[in-house]
Amino acid sequence: MLLRMFLEFFKIGIVTLGGGQAMLPILQHSLVRELHWISQEKFLYFVSVAEVTPGPVALNMATFIGYELRGVIGSIIATLGVVSPSFIIILIVARFEQKFKENALYTRFMLGVKPVIIALLINASYLIIQHSFSNPIYYLMALCGLFIFTLYKKSPVLILLLAGFTGIFILK
Amino acid sequence: MRKYFSLFFNFFKIGLFTIGGGYAMIPLMRETLVYRDNSLTEDEFLEMLAISQITPGPIAINMATFVGYREGGLIGSIFATVGVSLPSLITILLISIYFTNFIDIPWVKKFFLGILTGVVAEIVYITFDLFIKAKKTIFYLSILLLSVIELFVIRIDPIYVILIGGALGIVFGKFFEVKDAP
Q: Looking at CB atoms within 10 Å, which of A142, B45, B76, B90 has the fewest?
């Protein structure tokens, strides 16, 4: 069972292109519909928690489901499974990175990619706003955060914690 | 050895504050790696980010492995990857074992929602900062506009938006790369 779990999560790690959110439909399909390892309700509950707790969503899901199926060992095996493909692929890419860099095609590719990153960042903010900002207080808090961060950008963590504690008192 | 522990702790902190999807880690990662430790240039950071987005797996893990390998080889990549993964494992295990209804506690929920407003603030700041610092050639602005249309109007998956940008770079980039060289 542990080996199956490892392989199942390994497979999901491989097919997850484009970040953790992209894995959710795949995970749901294979674990809920095909293997029946967990129920649909449980899956949705896990997603709701995984999205707001610390850490990448993919890892949170792996830990949740792994624990549900086989306790602490299960959660570690599932996490290892989902992390391994990334780890191996990036090691290979990193190994040859210097070679790529000497290639003119790589330089030009990256020249075209840099403006795309700005668009992806706009998209990332938009997705969080659309998903979680339910009233004007959120926008006001984000604006204040932006103002403080502009003045004091040395510590992003401090600003996140400040936003969190402010949230406890003023968000509804 | 100190290098490895510093990788571990940096990425542990990054993992702990990645709330609201992989992009939430970018502000903290940029501040730590590019501005505080000077271990990457802005360009290298953006290139790694693009590679992490188009290769399989969560962006956080890809970035950790990548940076870890550059800083400390295979062992460095293991320390960084374990560092970024542990906060997830610990938090979710604690929730599973002790606090099953953790997220239904009102103040906990408000705390995390509050953090999300901070995440948005920091991502918006970085978006402006990167845009201001970039050399805004016609090529750059056209790809930016095209990417925004692809994401918001046509709604294409981010991976393809990156690949299209890169392909346009390969085709048209040679007219611009001399001007963009440092």
A: B90
